[in-house]
Write a structure and sequence with these properties.
alpha/beta; about 40% helix; 7-stranded mixed β-sheet
Length: about 300
């Protein structure tokens, strides 16, 4: 069969398997199997596909129809314009999370609002950032690449995830330090002390919602990175309770949140004494980021 015929049949199989965007996905799989790009397909779509390429493609197609994530088959996902290796040990970086990075960069570069003077930042002092629950390292690495003058630490409980994060830092030539830690537990002995900014995309899906997720997420992404306990707020509460010891006065705490968690997380931060709390919506108008400032002591 020709490339075009094989791709057309593949799209039909993907659609029958319940996969959306079947045309685009069949294209990605074909390009990956052939180590080619769209231009190659357009030039050769009426040519017969070599048997070895077809064998590789059909194997990939079967796995995708079994709802293995496309990114696990290709081993890669783009995030903030950078390539990231992914596997079953980390969450696949999502476009929603780019908003958290953009908000963090706006804060660090003093562009988000004219009132932000970054009062805890001394001119001779390096700005220090902590990424809790770093997973693939996509947040930590992106912050370092887009703001190279800062010092970035990423932490995660999973050693397997940290190996992925370290690989991504090396791949993107980003000098990020990674620490195996259960939230702040192994950061107490940190000789560098506090941070000016703490960012986190923690597990926030309520436990009883996980069985309802798409098979790609439910069956193939790490439950450790998904399960936010009964109400989805467990890790927000833990981080907010402990972050005060690790933030400079006036420092900032930022979270990615679920679309319905803005009010609850804001209230947790308010009760803990954070100021300038703001909920930031994504392009669809859904709550996506909550940020606030640690109380400034004078």
């Amino acid at each position: 069969m020709t490339y075009r015929e094989i791709r057309s049949k593949a799209a039909g199989r993907l659609r029958d398997a319940g996969i959306e965007n079947e045309q685009a996905e069949s294209e990605f799989l074909l390009e990956y199997a052939c180590s080619a790009d769209l231009n190659f397909y357009l030039l050769h779509q009426n040519d017969e596909m070599p048997q070895e390429q077809e064998r590789i493609f059909q194997n990939l197609l079967k796995q995708r129809c079994d709802r293995i994530p496309l990114q696990h088959l290709t081993g890669e996902q783009e995030f903030m314009g950078l390539p990231f290796f992914v596997n079953e040990n980390v969450l696949i970086p999502r476009q929603d999370t780019e908003l958290l990075v953009e908000e963090a960069l706006g804060y660090l570069k003093n562009k988000s609002d004219k009132e932000n003077e970054l009062c805890a930042f001394e001119q001779e002092q390096k700005i220090r950032v902590l990424d809790l629950c770093t997973g693939s390292g996509c947040i930590a690495v992106s912050l370092k690449k887009h703001c190279p003058e800062i010092v970035v630490t990423g932490s995660d409980l999973s050693e397997e995830a940290l190996r992925v994060a370290e690989r991504n830092a090396e791949r993107n030539d980003a000098d990020v330090m990674f620490v195996c830690s259960d939230l702040f537990s192994d950061l107490d002995g940190n000789p560098d002390g506090r941070f000016h900014l703490i960012v986190s995309n923690p597990p926030y899906i309520p436990t009883d919602v996980i069985p309802t997720l798409m098979p790609e997420v439910r069956d193939h992404e790490p439950e450790l990175a998904l399960d936010g306990r009964a109400d989805g707020l467990f890790f927000y509460q833990k981080i907010i309770e402990e972050a005060d010891r690790f933030l400079f006065s006036g420092g900032c705490l930022m979270f990615e949140i679920g679309y319905d968690q803005g009010t609850a997380v804001s209230e947790l931060m308010r009760e803990a004494g954070y100021t300038k709390i703001e909920v930031v919506p994504d392009l669809q108008g859904l709550d996506r980021v909550v940020k606030g400032r640690r109380l400034e002591y004078v």
